[in-house]
Design goal:
Layout (H helix, E strand, L loop, with lengths): L1 H18 L10 E10 L12 E9 L5 E15 L6 E7 L9 E2 L2 E4 L4 E8 L22 E3 L2 E3 L3 E12 L4 E11 L2 E3 L14
Antiparallel strand pairs: 1-2, 2-7, 3-4, 3-6, 3-10, 5-6, 8-9, 9-12, 10-11
């Protein structure tokens, strides 16, 4: 009798274990995109020292709260369409987070629809140190005075690509590549604003 009871409990135990659902990490939890591309104006970054700002946006597209350990790493690659050999690689880390308080003790919780953002800054230099506006087309610049003491060159097309790991269990996420236009500028007289303070041409 005792042996038969143990046998029945064993069967029930096995049956219960077999019916427990396996915890599967969802495949589509976080989407990333390049949400903003900003070229600073002449007062923020004068001709000769032009800069750009990009924002990477992440969003929990899953219909549940997602909370897991994070290991933020990745890279941004920006390349010039007319001269693809000119490109810039920027390494990403937790330091790029706009709001680092989202991460507590190496973990981050995202509610459904909640977003996070990362700031990227670029000084228009390639990986080998070339200041790219110096290779852009300023032909007929004397007839294209676009601001006081500033000549404008031909607009140039660039592409920005992002690969980012946030949660290790989700792996690397790829943002859709985004094209943008850069407007090169140069001062007619470098000694005058916005490039200088009045040292003459």
């Amino acid at each position: 009798m005792f042996a038969s009871v143990i046998f029945v409990w064993s069967l029930l135990s096995l049956s219960c274990k077999e019916n427990l659902p396996t915890r599967v990490i969802p495949q589509h939890v976080v989407d990333i995109s390049i949400s903003d591309v900003e070229q600073y104006n002449d007062h923020q970054s004068p001709p000769g020292r032009q800069k750009m700002h990009f924002i990477i946006m992440g969003e929990n597209i899953y219909d549940e709260v997602f909370w897991d350990s994070v290991n933020v790493k990745g890279s941004v690659r920006i390349w010039w369409k007319r001269k693809p050999v000119r490109f810039k690689t920027i390494i990403l880390s937790e330091k790029n987070f706009t709001d680092r308080t989202l991460i507590h003790n190496g973990r981050m919780m995202l509610l459904p629809g909640q977003k996070f953002s990362m700031d990227i800054y670029w000084d228009l230099r390639s990986d080998n140190g070339v200041y790219l506006p110096s290779e852009m087309d300023f032909a007929r610049a004397t007839s294209r005075l676009c601001y006081a003491n500033v000549y404008c060159g031909n607009p140039e097309d660039f592409v920005i690509e992002v690969s980012l790991n946030v949660y290790d269990r989700l792996g690397y996420l790829i943002a859709p590549a985004r094209e943008f236009i850069f407007y090169p500028r140069v001062c007619k007289c470098p000694g005058y604003p916005p490039c200088g303070t009045g040292g003459g041409c």
